[in-house]
């Protein structure tokens, strides 16, 4: 008599199954959170005002704003870091802290999801950027930092700082603001996670203040938002964002140091 066959091991749900399951799961609790859209508007005000202040300071000192390495790096980094720091402070003062309010819980499964969607994001970015550059022209499809290093060799220290910001610091700060604070503000209104996903994606793209690249940024942001959507935590979207930015950041580093032309 043959022994009974054992049932095959359960396979983890695929990406599409995970996305479909989101609509059937209850909304997460946000007890103790006393901040909402006003907190996000304050963070955006910190970002804009600090960027305006840096621009005015550079102008009064006679700095050439179109070619200054230090201005582009400082003007990109400082407002983003200040805004993210403000978001963290708000969760401590008006809520439960960033770990709970911004959904920063750690799970290795989230890292795996972020890696997969980050790799998907790289492929999507390459395809979208290629198509977009043909539509609007290569010059118009380039970011501010990309325009700065285009064909220009930078000091090694500046190139490394730029690489760290583009690949690591920038993604972490932006995730805290848009898929952390903004997402939480939307959920606190009782709106669905799908609404949080769509609105945070659109506002994230528009907030870069690069009108010609907004539609491209929306496409790039989709896998990052999906990582946040299906895991309900920020870790996955941070990992996806870091992975998605790694190839562009590495390219900028090689161009800035003269390794690539």
Automatic annotation (TrEMBL):
Keyword Transmembrane helix attached: yes
Oxidoreductase listed as a keyword: no
GO BP field: CAAX-box protein maturation
Assigned keywords, A-Z: Membrane, Transmembrane, Transmembrane helix
Domain of life: Bacteria
Limits of the CAAX prenyl protease 2/Lysostaphin resistance protein A-like domain: 159-247
Single GO MF descriptor: endopeptidase activity
Regions that span the bilayer: 35-58, 70-93, 113-132, 152-170, 191-209, 215-231, 238-260
Protein name: CAAX prenyl protease 2/Lysostaphin resistance protein A-like domain-containing protein
Pfam families in alphabetical order: Rce1-like (PF02517)
Species for this entry: Umezawaea tangerina
């Amino acid at each position: 008599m043959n022994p009974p066959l054992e049932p095959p091991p359960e396979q983890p749900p695929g990406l599409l199954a995970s996305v479909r399951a989101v609509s059937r799961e209850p909304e997460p609790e946000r007890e103790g959170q006393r901040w909402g859209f006003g907190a996000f508007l304050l963070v955006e005000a910190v970002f804009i005002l600090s960027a305006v202040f840096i621009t005015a300071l550079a102008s009064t000192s006679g700095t050439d704003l179109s070619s200054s390495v230090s201005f582009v790096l400082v003007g990109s980094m400082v407002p983003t870091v200040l805004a993210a720091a403000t978001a963290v402070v708000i969760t401590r003062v008006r809520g439960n802290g960033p770990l709970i309010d911004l959904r920063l819980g750690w799970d290795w499964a989230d890292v795996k999801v972020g890696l997969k969607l980050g790799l998907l994001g790289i492929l999507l970015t390459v395809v979208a950027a290629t198509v977009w550059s043909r539509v609007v022209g290569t010059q118009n499809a380039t970011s501010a930092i990309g325009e700065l290093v285009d064909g220009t060799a930078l000091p090694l220290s500046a190139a490394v700082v730029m690489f760290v910001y583009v690949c690591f610091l920038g993604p972490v700060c932006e995730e805290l603001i848009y898929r952390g604070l903004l997402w939480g503000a939307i959920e606190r209104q009782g709106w669905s996670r799908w609404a949080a996903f769509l609105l945070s994606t659109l506002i994230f793209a528009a907030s870069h203040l690069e009108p010609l690249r907004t539609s491209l940024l929306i496409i790039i942001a989709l896998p990052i938002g999906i990582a946040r959507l299906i895991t309900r935590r920020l870790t996955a979207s941070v990992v996806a964002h870091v992975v998605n930015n790694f190839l562009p950041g590495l390219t900028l580093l090689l161009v800035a140091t003269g390794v690539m032309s």
